[in-house]
Amino acid sequence: MITGHTRLVAVIGAPVRHSRSPVIHNAAFAAAQLDWVYVALEVPPGRGAEAIRALPVLGLTGVNVTMPHKADAARACDELTPVARALGSVNTVVVRDDGSCFGASTDGEGFLRALADEGLDPAGRSVLVLGAGGAARAVAEALVRVGAEVAVASRRPEAAREVAAAIPGVEPRPWPSGAAGDAEIVVNATPIGMGDDPTVPLPPLAGQWIVDLVYHPLETNFLREAMECGAKAIGGLGMLVHQAALAFELWTGVSAPLEAMRDAARSAQ
């Protein structure tokens, strides 16, 4: 039951109504027996910083941040983790008791934990990351940190160069036209394939690992083509759950109930 004592957290983005985060987090709060509730708030593009500054005024305990607000949210925070500062991007904000906002990026670590669940260690492997947004940057930084050889390709070449300049060890690449042939792992960190979009960002190759951060639908055309050609496929649900679990722990100080979160993520269609 929601009362005047219930603590409120949210996800902000545009669009955001498709998000599974409310289902995942509310299942986690119920499993942990916490009097918390999580909602989705549509925030128009360009107003992410305003939303962050309003959090302590409205009494929210924190938010998750998704497209297109991750960079604006980082600039609006009073303090950032070293990773979030290096990326210039946050996906989790904690409102402290003094009203200050602390920003973190749980995407990169969530991505690595999702790969570990599937038995994939990216250390020493060549990886092509498709995209140059907040999630792509977080994934690229995490991969470099564990010793992968990372290239980033974007439909806007200057965006790939910006990622390479921000993250030492990343090589910019042109948008794929045969550019993925030497990559052992290909990560789709763009919205391509989301919802009913049938587009495949590039043809997968047998023997590659194909990782799609898109989680709606659970099986994208990219993943389907990967499996049909003999590549190994990993969907976006694992990263979604792990980054959510890390955010949950930052807000609550309680260990995340991972199984409850996984079950909720799978059941939310």
CATH superfamily of the largest domain: Leucine Dehydrogenase, chain A, domain 1
CATH hierarchy class name of the largest domain: Alpha Beta
Q: What is the end-to-end distance? A: 24 Å
Q: What number is the mean pLDDT?
A: 95
Give an overview in words.
This protein is α/β, with parallel strands linked by helices. The protein is built from ten helices and twelve strands. Strand 11 (209-212), helix 8 (221-229) and strand 12 form a beta-alpha-beta unit. Helix 5 (107-117) packs across helix 6 (134-145) and helix 5 (107-117) packs across helix 9. The radius of gyration is 18 Å and the shape is globular. The protein starts with 6 loop residues before the first strand and ends with a helix.
Brief rundown of the structure:
The chain has 269 residues and is of the alpha/beta class. It has helices at 21-31, 48-58, 70-76, 82-87, 107-117, 134-145, 157-166, 221-229, 237-252, 258-267; strands at 7-13, 36-42, 62-65, 79-80, 92-95, 101-104, 126-130, 149-153, 170-173, 185-188, 209-212, 232-234.
